[in-house]
């Protein structure tokens, strides 16, 4: 698994506004399942907005975060997004009661 964290410097939105925005964009990310996106967690906080994305591979993640994507995000949110990439080797899943080591 590969993790990308997107941070967009912006003001924290009220919960209802954040949920409404997420619901509107969710079909885009649902469709990305066919391109390797496993999960997206929407972020809304004092440090800004963005998301935590879990991808099948680094290649799948990097294929999404293109210069055109960056321009669309900047136009939509009025700020340039920052993407940080991480390899993920170990997962602690307390809901499943297991520790999983990625092969």
Describe this structure in a few short sentences.
The protein is an alpha+beta fold.
What does this structure look like?
- With about 100 residues, the protein is an alpha+beta fold.
- It has 3 helices and 6 strands, in the order E-H-E-E-H-H-E-E-E.
- It has helices spanning about 15-30, 60-65, 65-75; strands at about 1-10, 35-45, 50-55, 80-85, 90-95, 100.
- It has a 4-stranded antiparallel sheet with strand order 2-3-1-4.
- Strand 2 (about 35-45) and strand 3 form a beta hairpin.
- The longest helix has 17 residues, at about 15-30.
- The termini are close together.
- The mean pLDDT is about 95.
Oligomer: single chain
Figure out the total of helices: 3
Helix content: 25-40%
> Which radius of gyration do the C-alpha atoms yield?
14 Å
Provide the structure class.
alpha+beta
What is the number of beta strands? 6
Shape: globular
Q: Mean pLDDT across all residues, rounded?
A: 96
Main sheet overview: 4 strands, antiparallel
Strand order of the largest sheet: 2-3-1-4
- SSE pattern, N- to C-terminal: EHEEHHEEE
Q: Terminal Cα separation, in Å?
A: 9 Å
Low-confidence stretches: none
- Estimate the strand proportion: 35-45%
